[in-house]
User: What shape does this take?
Amino acid sequence: MNGPVLEPSLDFPALLYKLLPGIYRDKDARGELQRFLEIASLPLEELEVSIAQLYEDLFLENGRAPFIPLIGALIGVEIDPTLPERVQRTEVEEAFAFYRSKGLHDPIGQFAERVTGWRAALIDFSRKVAQVPFVPDLNPVIPYRNQSVGENPPASGNFFFRADQALQPLFDRRTGRPITRQAMAGRESEYAGIEGRFAMRDRGVDLFLPDPTPRFIPLAADLTDFANPKMPNGIALILLPNQVAIDPELGRFKIVPPIPLAGNLRVDFHVLVPASVAVQTFDLRDPMQIDRLNRSDDAAPHTLDIRRPRRPTDRIGRYHFDNLGFFFTLGRRMSNQRPNILPPGSQSGHFSFDGRLLGVGDTAGVSIQLQDGIDGSPLTRQKLDAEVKEFCGTTRGFTLRVNGIDLCSPDFQPAATPRAADLSDFANPKTPSGAAMTLASTEVAIDPQLGRFKLDPTGLGIAAEQIRVDYLLAPVQNHRGTAPAALSETVHDIFGFDPQRKMIVLRDGEDGMPISVKRRLGSAPADFHGRRRGWTVYRNGVDVSGVLLQAEEKDLEDPTTPVTPGRLAVDVDRGRFKFPAGFLSPADLLAVDYSDEDAAGEEQLLASFLQRSPKLLPAGVVPVPIDTRVPHVDPSVLE
Assistant: This one.
């Protein structure tokens, strides 16, 4: 906002002409004198506008951008001039409310959200976090969450649960016993992806979900020799694509092409350490965490302050945590949105979270992938089904409101029950596992992978126009008509979408989720090739995506990778594409449409926030940024 453009309040040409003696006006039959006065009055108009603007510059709402820091300085607000003008004005406008507020929690949280535009969660650790040692007689089971894996040699598909590739038998917390090959054989689905046993994820997506494409099938195996995998009974095992051989006794697993990038894989597993004392951190107010001790009569028998000073130089208090942890997950908050009923104007009870204008008779709407606000991973049907209360009606997931009342709260009557569902076909809803679903009149089916929900308006006593939704989408910026960058001086058919030759991750232009993640969840290449939400390639102004060249997904780390004739090879995790041999001529001009993440802009906002936030906190309190997102791995840096 640059303030309104001021117009002169007086008609100076008419005023000057009127002030002339009448004899001059009478002799000006051709209007030459009047036109001269119009030119002569221009400086007067500029002076009047300038004087009027000086008055407007005294006020925050209408003042020009360079004056915002000066106005802020009058009330003790230090403004970062590199921030967007909207943020600068808002910060000065809310300064007095901030000064008058009591405590730190609400003011600092509001400040973080206002400056960055991101969802912020402020965690105060004082009197909350304790360290509890497991003593030997408890047979401690150590859970390892979200661990990196090892691979040897690189790109071989020979993986280790431990990043250091050490031998690591897996333990089953459910039975209290080690997981053996024989125990897993024939019952792999009862172990893979199950809480208390082990799980594998690629960029936050569980490899063993029932509905991703491609789906990975777990197989118990003996991987003593990676080159000669065997079944638990000793028979040679021949692995097929999208199968995972898992050796729980050695902590190894093997995948044949297509092989996920090792750096994008994360695993959960449990280890039995019967003769050690392992310290774990617990939230004393979370009974589910404390239950892990199996000491309901004395939940925290060995409690100590994790910030107790250990050295005289420790600048911390004895009973408080003097750092404020800013956990941030980048994304887009869609607040108080009107969802689309499908088709528009009906009372079908079929809705899409996306509320953009649709054509008459549209029964599909725009599909969008909702984001988990904790780690930025996709909110899948399986994840929602397992923890529906964690996501429905919370800032972590989404909210459905009718006349301002959350459908998932006890205040809404009749009580509504949210259920995770597959709503690919509204007429035939299914459970996340693929079974047919029958909905009661007060149940609400929600599909976070398509951004859809289904309910019975009559059973809930509501009308479609009363519903509003909040939800989270991944960050994205769209580029249209940019010139791609040539990536090789010897291979003239390979290009990078980014003009600066940066390695980028292509994202869905509608919901911001990485396209590789969308593919894992079932989307097809045709959903993105030549589409506005994916990528489009132009040669001499003509779109060659789809009609002339169909898409094929390929690893284009090596510029010499061959391309099938009649195909356009696209590497969505490197932001590269390559034409088939002989398709281009030296005189051809190229342009591309694509979407990625504005990493530089996000870093600038975060850096500005962290630079200025200590001045708003009490002395000695330090803000600590904690990025909760599922990390993306640059394939070029993998060993």
Remarks:
- The longest helix spans residues 42-56.
- The CA atoms of residues 508 and 518 lie 8 Å apart.
